Amino acid sequence: MAEAxxxxxxxxxxxxxFVYALCDLKxxxxxxxxxxxxxxxxxAEKYLKAYILVRGKTFRKIHNLVxxxxxxxxxxxxxxxLLSEAAVLNPFYTDTRYxxxxxxxxxxxxxEKASQAAQKIGDFVKNKIGGxx
Length: 133
Prior knowledge:
- Residues 14-121 form the HEPN domain.
- It contains five helices and no strands.
- By secondary structure, the protein is an all-alpha fold.
- It has a single domain, classed as Nucleotidyltransferases  domain 2 (Four Helix Bundle (Hemerythrin (Met), subunit A), Up-down Bundle), CATH 1.20.120.
- The longest helix is centred in the first third of the chain and has 22 residues, at 33-54.
């Protein structure tokens, strides 16, 4: 069994989350936008955690993407450019899966914004990691 500190595993899982979420957007008949938003959030989270591990750092159990971007920006200040994407994705960790104080409907527009944000984070991380793993 691979250890949880293996960044290759985190990158693989991030890619799977991203592709899985894209499947919901490609089918115009489906309206599973909340799960798609959640999986885009998860992809971004795993990409950021992979970067932290590649750089030999650790992270506590956390799902807050803004905080993860800040951890990454302590390593490389260029990550600050991802704060707005992290802020877009952050609410999708909880709001897409649990009832909140008021009902939230997620739209195709929300899922497309989540897709773009996760894509930008994923591309940025993969570019930064390059051939380091």
